[in-house]
Amino acid sequence: MHTIRPARQQDLDTLLALRREAEAWLADRGIRQWTRDMSALIKERLHDGRTWLLEDVGGPFATITLSGPDMDFWRAEDEPENAIYVYKLIVARSHSGRGYGDLLLDWASDRAARAGLAWVRLDCDRSNTALHDYYLARGFEHVRTVELPHRQSGALFQRPSVRLPRPIMIEATSR
Q1: How many structural domains is the chain composed of?
Q2: 155-165: per-residue pLDDT in tens?
Q3: Closest CA to 157 of 91, 86, 102, 94
Q4: Is residue 156 within a helix (H) or strand (E), and if so which, with residue range?
Q5: 145 and 154 in contact (C-beta within 8 Å)?
């Protein structure tokens, strides 16, 4: 059984370890993504309840952060308030290739639909075309690419939110 729950303060080391593992895996493949220290932002998102962990009996192995739009990228005409925004989707390498990223994206889509929001959106590294292909294969459409000199990200994707007929996992909401 898999459970998704809000990350708690005591999960900070787990979140940082997931991030470091993802950074190293990307770097080993020559992908320059997630190269700056994000520990302060991870702590902030942890504190404000926007970060979630996917776990099984062995403990947490994936994370997703749901938040508002990054206004460096999304415009007023995009109706940014009508979407949920996915950040820092990470699955531990020990659990990769088993569909857990898909599961978390579907869960985010269901949350958006239940909140009356039309879209699930994200931005990702402009140069990581393998990641672009991953999102396209999961029903996302490329909206546009925004190039800002101070940001590596800027490839914008979205897909319509969909309310699932039944929950795909147990959602634990207690802190």
Answers
A1: 1
A2: 999 999 999 88
A3: 86
A4: strand 153-160
A5: yes
CA torsion, points 160, 53, 102, 140, in degrees to nearest 10? 30
What digits encode the pLDDT tens for the residues 80-132?
999 999 999 999 999 999 999 999 999 999 999 999 999 999 999 888 899 99
Nearest Cα to Cα of residue 101 among 130, 142, 58: 130
CATH number of the domain that 14 lies in?
3.40.630.30
Q: What is the pTM of this model?
A: 0.88
Residues in Cβ contact with 132 at an 8 Å cutoff, skipping those fewer than 6 apart = 124, 142, 155, 157
d(C-alpha 167, C-alpha 164), whole Å: 7
β-pairing, 3-6 with 51-56? antiparallel
Q: What pLDDT does residue 38 have?
A: 62
- Strands (E) across 41-140 are located at 51-56, 59-67, 83-91, 119-125
Domain range holding 94?
3-171
Mean pLDDT estimate for the chain: 88
The Cα 61–Cα 58 span in angstroms is 8
Residue 90 tokens read as 């990470």
Neighbours of 138 (CB within 10 A): 15
Q: Which residue in 94, 106, 33, 40 sits closest to 62, CA to CA?
A: 94
